[in-house]
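Reviewer 2 asked us to include a model.

Predict the structure of this chain.
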Amino acid sequence: MRIDEFTEVQVMLSILGLIDISMVMNLLVIVIIGGYSIFTSRIDFDEQEDRPHWIDHLDADRLKVKLATSLASISGVHLLKTFIDIHSETETGSYEDLKFEITIHLVFIISALILAWIARILDPSNKINGMAENGYTTPK
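Predicted model (structure tokens):
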């Protein structure tokens, strides 16, 4: 098939497929680097400019939150692909499949929010939601 024969929907689905693959690869990088630096040993990034900044403050709770939000984002891209191509999806399947996809996406979002909330509660350095560290004071 030649490129000038693609429809708008096919082009958008192809671009979303590339975005989806990129997000999955970023998820793998987060898991590999984060898991190694947390559970095995620290990676020495001191002299390098292009080191990931998120690795300085990474612990197991933050890694879980990053993974959950990444999964919710990937699920959102997949759901967007389904909505763009809704006509062919409903011809091959039913609206039940779409309901299941929406439900799974909502479960990913809710679980990410719950993990972030729990990590925030259990963080001992979080004084009044981190306000004291940022120069904010409580009203008198």
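The CA atoms of residues 54 and 68 lie 16 Å apart. The mean pLDDT is 79. We have added this to the supplementary material.
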